[in-house]
Amino acid sequence: MNEGVAGWFNSIVNYGVSIIWGNNDWLIASNPWYGLLMFVLIGAGLYFTVATRFIQFRHFGHMWQLLRVSNQGRKDGGISSFEALMTSLAARVGTGNLAGVAIAIYLGGPGAVFWMWMTAIVGMSTSFIESTLAQAYKVPHNDNVYRGGPAYYIEKGLGKRWLAVFFSLCLLVAFGLAFNGVQSNTIAQATNEAFGIPTWMTGLILVVLVAPVVFGGLRSVARIAGKVVPVMAILYILLALYVILTNFSEFPAAIALIVKSAFGFEQAAGGVIGYGIAQAMINGIKRGLFSNEAGMGSAPNAAATAKSHPDHPAVQGFMQMLGVFLDTLVICTATASIIILSGVVDPSVEQEGIQLTQLALSQYVGDMGVIFVAIAIFFFSFTSIIANYSYGESNLEFISGEKNAKVMIMIFRFMVLGMVFIGAVASLPAIWNFADLSMGLMALVNLVAIIILSPVALRILRDYERQIKEGKTADQIKFNPDDFVKLKDEANRDAWTD
């Protein structure tokens, strides 16, 4: 009976995943809805790119200028714009960057990397829209850390609390629980490969390390992320640059291979060009979204917490746009370069994601490569776990209300710690499949919401650009929610007035 119910549940989940994410035959599938999220994700990104007049290119330099002042403006022990960016990067930079890229290349060929790039480029504008909305609709909290995100702008902007609750539930399943198990599983596999440490021991160590951070609340998560993420990201990028520079004569050919494979040119001789494109697109877009999270509705939860400097919601939009660039176009490209230049990918042999990255790096620095990847994935995935927890706490509080949230949050903390240990010692493909379904559903809900609310975000962008053109300094730029019809909620005025 139990097997029958489990089989029925798995078949429903698998069908839902195939509709949302597509499968290897989606270009020729009779069901026109296969890969629905692919079309909505790319379509929304293209729309936002045009609507913002190619903001990711026009304001590319401005993103970096804001980064220089992003640690200013924090008040009352709150979270700075820089710390909010690091929290979102903590969630972004993890399994997807080291193991996910390897899986995409193994399943979809080098061309998958190209589609990861495309997803990130159009996703930068999507990230700007959703993060700007998160800041615009954020609400104050008694711990001096703002709350906000898709659940808040769906309820306040669209007036659909039931849809906001549905989004929050999907996020709790995907980020609060399942993906934390994915991250701990990756850490356990990498440390077992590098040091021979039993997975159960790694699970216990992770629980001990994660517990004080999650029990410290959202401010604790931001502080840890702000210190760990920049250091590990810089070290990993420097290592990738070493690999590229020592193999620079082969680097142009590797880039050419990525582009050719993306359009099936490498498979054309075998007569399977369509299948090759489908493989590359599906794996590239899916892993790209999992890595940079643009449009998924997760990063806006971090974006909303910031006390931005300048004091305007568009600032965090720019900062999170920079986060997508750093995650995929820098860190994922670093991993892809290491793997492709190493030549270790063998489609005829089953290769695990993180072990493939370790194997590739060991071609350049020997056993130290295996150890370095294990250390890198530990810190990247550890920070992902605590950032994912923060997303879950914020949405759980949204569902239950601030006054009734204490008991629910305490239970949730123990559930997260339990999932961290279970993920380290077990292989739960059905759970991860369910997480893919939850992630896909929350992305679809968020994308529809930000498309409808995009006129608000675009007006906020124009307001910010107007003040920049007037020559105002960072301390002079201000945001007045009363200028926006949809933002005249009392909580929003409280969040945007001193």
UniProtKB/TrEMBL annotation:
**Membrane topology according to the record:** Multi-pass membrane protein
Where the protein is mainly located, per its record?
membrane
- Transmembrane regions listed in the UniProt entry: 33-55, 89-108, 162-182, 194-216, 228-245, 251-278, 324-345, 365-389, 410-432, 438-461
The terms describing its cellular component in GO are:
plasma membrane
Keyword terms, alphabetized: Cell inner membrane, Cell membrane, Membrane, Symport, Transmembrane, Transmembrane helix, Transport
Coiled-coil ranges (or none): none
- Please report which protein family the annotation says this sequence is part of: Belongs to the alanine or glycine:cation symporter (AGCS) (TC 2.A.25) family.
Q: Which NCBIfam families match?
A: agcS (TIGR00835)
Protein name, please? Amino acid carrier protein
According to its UniProt entry, this protein's organism is Psychrobacter cryohalolentis (strain ATCC BAA-1226 / DSM 17306 / VKM B-2378 / K5)
